[in-house]
Amino acid sequence: MYKLLIFAINTLFLYSCAENSVENFVKINGKSIEITGKLHYFGRINQWYEAILTSHRQEMNRANILGDNTLKEPSLNYALEADFHPIDKHATTETKAMYSRLKELAKRGIMFGHQDDLAYGHDWFREAGRSDVKDVCGDYTAVVGWELGHIEIAATYNLDSINFDDMKQYILQAHRRGSFNTISWHCDNIITGNTAWDCRQNTVVKSILPGGDNHNKYKTWLDRLAAFLSDLKDDEGRPLPVMFRMYHEHTGDWFWWCSKQCTPEEYIALWRMTLEYLRDVKQIHNLIYVYSPSDVNDVKEYLERYPGDDFVDMLGFDCYAAADKMSWYEERMKNNLDIITRYANEVNKIACLSETGLEGIVDTAYFTDTLYPLIENYEISYLLLWRNAWQMKTHFYVPFAGHSSSDNFRRFIQFPRILMCKNIK
């Protein structure tokens, strides 16, 4: 039925072009259709849509008689977005449901997220049920971020001292509450054995691509990564879906996969190879893939290393504030929010603010006076603030109990467009 509507609109588009009656009305981007202006024959769309709607209402009536009230009246927008799905054609049912849920919630508001929120806080480590955010406002975050750096070297703990077995439990706990999990991966420099921040070479990416000296070693790393991801299960033993944000901030110059360390072609090959190995070889089908460069100057730079619409589910970016560069931060945030939301709309994907924050919250009004005005008018799925490092007393991005920004943060989460865990259940 919905395919008939899309066929009708496409037919109408072609017919109207022939009659020279289109005024920037329909813009086709792949399979998405965006209404942007006037159409002389708009009445015909309404007629076709009403016919389809009448048929669907008859189905609803029959279903209600049988006691099934799950069928809902479709909107025109719903019909146009009927083909919305993850890039993995074999994604699990739960992963597809999560992807649709992310899309739905983005229309309601912006989910608030925090890195490592359940594992530690400003002055505590590994206390069951605790969260700095919950200590301050009484609720858990709607999104929780996690880091898999060192999973590739078969370590017991990640690079921020979280036990990987504990992390699996934290991910499950967040899932049980209704929150979403997002995962990044700062994997080591495979040539030197140092951290991801060892970026003195420009040959690391090339060395792990097919034919490179470290290609087979990298596949072993991916096997270890896949083992962790495949072990994420819900309470029914089904694969637990997560967002996976690999090789992020690549438009910077501080990781071995960044713009000064590899060519655009090498980066794209790295992304596609990694995704295809996880999806096709290791049969990992519980991932939503998030593309998140650091802040960029324009859409050309944003897309220069973009792997392609068939290899990305969500579009984000990372951008941090600094006390002496707040005007710069505001300008960069607005520019990049414009870029990702416009492109996400064009290609029917989901936008997010994958990392942001002000270290140490030196401006105690940051949340209500700076952050919220920047994001409130954009359709983004979530924003993620970075971690409150228990072993680094000035490295925190959300308030902890007693911090001077706590009242401001509590006002921030009361804004109607900010969604916490209780708001998405």
What does this structure look like?
This protein is an alpha/beta fold and 425 residues long. The protein has 2 domains: 2-80, no CATH class; 93-423, Glycosidases (TIM Barrel). The protein contains 13 helices and 17 strands. The chain has helices at residues 2-18, 42-65, 76-80, 93-108, 132-137, 164-177, 204-208, 215-230, 264-281, 299-303, 326-347, 366-375, 406-413; strands at 22-23, 26-29, 32-35, 38-39, 110-115, 120-121, 124-125, 143-147, 180-185, 242-246, 287-291, 314-315, 318-321, 350-351, 353-358, 382-385, 418-419. Strands 5, 8, 9, 10, 11, 12, 13, 14, 15, 16 and 17 form an 11-stranded parallel beta sheet that branches. Strands 1-4 form a two-stranded antiparallel ribbon. It starts with a helix and ends in a 6-residue tail after the last strand. 39% of the residues are buried. The model is unreliable at 1-52 and 70-81 (pLDDT under 50).
Fraction of residues in helix: 25-40%
pLDDT under 50 segments (min length 5)? 1-52, 70-81
- What CATH calls the topology of the largest domain is TIM Barrel
Number of helices: 13
